[in-house]
Amino acid sequence: MKVMVIGSGGREHAMVWKLSQSSLCSKVYAAPGNPGMAPAERIQPPRSDPESFLRIAQEREVDLTVVGPEAPLVDGVVDLFQARGRRIVGPTARAAQLEGSKVFAKRFMERAGVPTARFLVFDSAEEACQSAGAFGFPAVLKADGLAAGKGVIIAGDDREAAEALQRLPKGRVLVEECLTGEEVSFIAFCDGDTAIPFEPTQDHKRVFDDDRGPNTGGMGAYCDPRILSDEDRRRVMDRIIQPTLDQMRREGAPFTGFLYAGLMMTADGPKALEFNVRLGDPEAQPLMYRMKSDFLATLAEGAPMEWRPDPAVCVVLAAAGYPGTPRTGDPITGIDACGATVFHAGTRAGANGLVTGGGRVLGVTASGPDLPSAIANTYAAVEKIHFEGMHYRRDIGRKGLRRW
To answer: How do strand 2-7 and strand 27-32 relate by DSSP bridges?
Structure first.
């Protein structure tokens, strides 16, 4: 099979890396890809729009396209491919509203009976400011639309809320009850009716250790079978994933592709914080690393997934200035000698070698027979990589150590 992966970040690099190992795969294309995505053939579309991606798939006679980022899904790339009879992994634009609009997602959760935090919707930040403490503090403030993982702010009091609301993008705003518990990323591959769950992962959104500082697109993640018990996995499937699929089907928009539920494991059981409609980034990196089975067989034929027992850890190396405006063009050294699998997220080819090209630059990924070993192996590799201004969290996976 010829496979195309749409996207250019660490998630897409991890998928290219795994798909290229499949016995079913004869060729991998990446549109537009990044310098780390060998052995894929990189193709630069004239524009990042559905028509451009469709033209590439038609010209290369691609058998299956896999969409990495959320924007093409919200823009209707799946609708277009399906209308032209081409196979593609992802939800339609209507179903992608689960991520494209947080207001839609929360109201949908109510209709579907999915447990979630209490919330209020406001047309503007100014309106929301008057009711930021409606559920007490800390309060969760969310921008309605896509925000690259940076549209959520937790405010500790009225003053913080007022300042935070001014930083959110213009448009509708949600004020939510702040749930307590442990956050978990739970992703399932869906065919509209049923779902095949991935292993649970845990993301680290804040830029600094101990969950301090502003939210980012993700500073690292780990994948460990001990994150959720078998009983908790069943609860998530029964209370969140399956009701979502059932309600989407009832509403005439069957969900296909990757359904990502950001969860809070509360004292009352799992509650959904948000939905994404694609694989998480950086969760995809340790997931692809731990997956034992053929990923393409799952996507193309619905084959079950099998997992290696060893936990995997991914640490994101970020550029100077991230999560604000990142500095680019700094030379990168040490990747080849680090002893780990390194997924590129924001790199480009410079005159004398690889340089930084974005905010999240690399995802250093390794495993071990237990979580402490996986953490140690990953950070040993991190220490061998360098670029000016490089910063990263030093506590990725630490929350999981109490389970060992």
So the answer is: parallel
